[in-house]
């Protein structure tokens, strides 16, 4: 397997993801407006009720606290929509055609995951424009930390969505799994409420949720001195999660990409 063949196939699939996304404006609107409405209405409704303490970073308003969680939701939504197309590709025969082509199986997975990652990252970064509105200064170090975590988180979530899509035989089944599994994954990430105020059993669920470490890293990037897991732990957990989802996706693709 030559490197040139691998990257040619990967780049082609990434380009296909980009073209498909920007030709479907409803996907762009849905991926951006839904999290924005979550942030605005939920943040506005709860903003006057309490402030959140982030350790040495001090107290922050709920609108400020909720913004990193909203960016995580953007990544999750984009991962869902970008990988859901795998079901249509399989039913239309495109996935089977790719699998019997000379393209390496690893390039198929990499192309799909990188395409979804770039789409999620660029949409999530747009929400950083709200930081000046919320009077949150963002230095270069904070921007680099947040951007790196958004990329890593997007890659892992796209891989998770790809695994679910490869094991699901219908769009309806994919949505059922999304509502049952993926949305609780976001709610239990510290995006909506901090773990410090949760009961013990809920803290355990939040501690084993990889998205909790993604949101914690974003909080540290936006609010220097924020408590919680260290950046090393946050990036380590997300790197392990991304590698795991890539490996499982590759294993499923090598079996033919058929739904169970």
The tally of beta strands, per DSSP, is 2
Strand order of the largest sheet: 1-2
Low-confidence stretches: none
Sheet having the most strands: 2 strands, antiparallel
SSE string, helices as H and strands as E:
HHEEHHHHHHHH
The first-to-last residue Cα distance is: 29 Å
Rg calculated over all Cα atoms: 19 Å
Question: What portion of residues belong to β-strands?
Answer: under 5%
Overall pLDDT score: 82
**What form results from the Cα inertia axes?**
elongated
Walkthrough of the structure:
This protein is an all-alpha fold and 260 residues long. The protein has one domain. Helix content is 74%, strand content 2%. The protein has helices at 3-23, 25-47, 62-92, 94-99, 105-126, 140-166, 171-187, 200-207, 210-222, 231-254, and strands at 51-53, 59-61. A hairpin with a 5-residue loop joins strand 1 and strand 2. The two termini are 29 Å apart.
Map the helices and strands.
Elements: H1 3-23, H2 25-47, E1 51-53, E2 59-61, H3 62-92, H4 94-99, H5 105-126, H6 140-166, H7 171-187, H8 200-207, H9 210-222, H10 231-254
Helix pairs in contact: 1-5, 2-3, 3-5, 3-6, 3-7, 3-9, 5-6, 5-10, 6-9, 6-10, 9-10
Give descriptors for this structure.
260 residues; 2 strands; 2% strand; elongated
Characterize this entry briefly.
With 260 residues, the protein is an all-alpha fold. It has helices at residues 3-23, 25-47, 62-92, 94-99, 105-126, 140-166, 171-187, 200-207, 210-222, 231-254; strands at residues 51-53, 59-61. It has one domain (3-254).
